[in-house]
Design a protein that fits this description.
Elements lengths: L1 H8 L17 E7 L2 E8 L8 E6 L6 H4 L11 E6 L13 H22 L3 E6 L1 H10 L7 E7 L5 H13 L28 E6 L7 H10 L4 E6 L14 H16 L9 E3 L1
Parallel strand pairs: 3-4, 3-5, 5-6, 6-7, 7-8, 8-9
Antiparallel strand pairs: 1-2, 2-4
Helix pairs in contact: 1-5, 3-4
């Protein structure tokens, strides 16, 4: 039953939507996790010196060749960018589930954090949709001392609620009882108190048809530390970016510039909700 619920939730494929060289110089990563190989890409900043390392945890469906474009544009503004595929996505081996995703995320976080520390810069987490949930949960059991910021982009607080939504949309509302068979242990809602000393930026559309806006707001409201919520009014899911040239893209670059200038952990900053 757990397998069936998992298959309703994860939508990987092996289609090559883009090649990494289309985005600029890159390093191909082969991440070994207990004999399972995960595929990843690392793009150095187009400007020197590097300001921070951005680690993307991408959204559900497809693979990094479709998701990398949503963050790799940050290299043009002085940021290294790293991304990887979960088990069963793209060229990564194995099959995904919440527990394996969590365990693999700890390995990938360590790899990205090591690179950031070598460069003497902070690590920024860009967690998008499913990736935000994976990142938030893994960070609870990770050394956060060099993590400067978490960007929770169109993400959710509970697998249970998202599985119920997926089952309702796929096989009908009367079968939402199947969600009880999906392991909710690795939902970030259970461990937010262990991560919420970190600065948080929530980006979520009020009209998101995939992950309801209420999910992003739940993360924001349960966050104890410095936080900001961008409640956007755009159609679609993960659809606000124009790959570096859009209004919200520039807003994010300006936000990161201010955060770097003031210090990510400036406790004087107050929570903020912005449209």
């Amino acid at each position: 039953m757990l397998f069936r619920c998992s298959s309703l939730y994860y939508y990987p494929d092996q289609v090559e939507y883009s090649k990494p060289e289309e985005y600029g110089p890159f390093e191909s990563l082969s991440i070994d996790v207990e004999g399972v190989s995960l595929d990843g890409w690392y793009f150095p900043s187009a400007k020197s010196p590097t300001r921070a390392v951005v680690l993307q945890f991408h959204g559900n469906a497809q693979n990094i060749s479709s998701h990398a474009a949503l963050g790799v544009w940050l290299t043009q503004f002085g940021y290294d960018f790293m991304t990887y595929d979960y088990r069963g996505f793209g060229k990564s081996e194995g099959s995904p589930d919440p527990k394996r995703n969590y365990e693999d995320a700890l390995i990938v976080l360590k790899m990205a954090d090591d690179r950031a520390r070598e460069k003497g810069v902070p690590l920024i987490i860009l967690g998008q949709s499913l990736g935000g949930a994976i990142a938030l949960r893994a960070l609870a059991d990770f050394d956060q001392s060099n993590v400067g910021l978490i960007i929770a982009d169109s993400t959710f607080a509970s697998y249970d609620s998202m599985v119920r939504n997926a089952i309702r949309n796929t096989v009908g509302s009367w079968l939402t009882i199947l969600a009880f068979f999906f392991d909710d242990e690795y939902s970030p809602i259970h461990t937010l108190d262990q991560v919420s000393r970190l600065p948080l930026l929530v980006i979520h559309s009020r009209f998101d048809p995939v992950v309801p806006f209420s999910e992003g707001r739940s993360i924001y409201e349960n966050w104890q530390g410095r936080k900001e919520l961008w409640a956007l009014e755009v159609d679609g899911h993960l659809s606000w970016s124009n790959y570096g040239s859009g209004k919200t893209d520039q807003r994010l670059v300006d936000f990161l510039d201010r955060m770097l200038a003031r210090g990510f952990h400036d406790s004087k900053r107050q929570p903020k909700v912005a449209d």
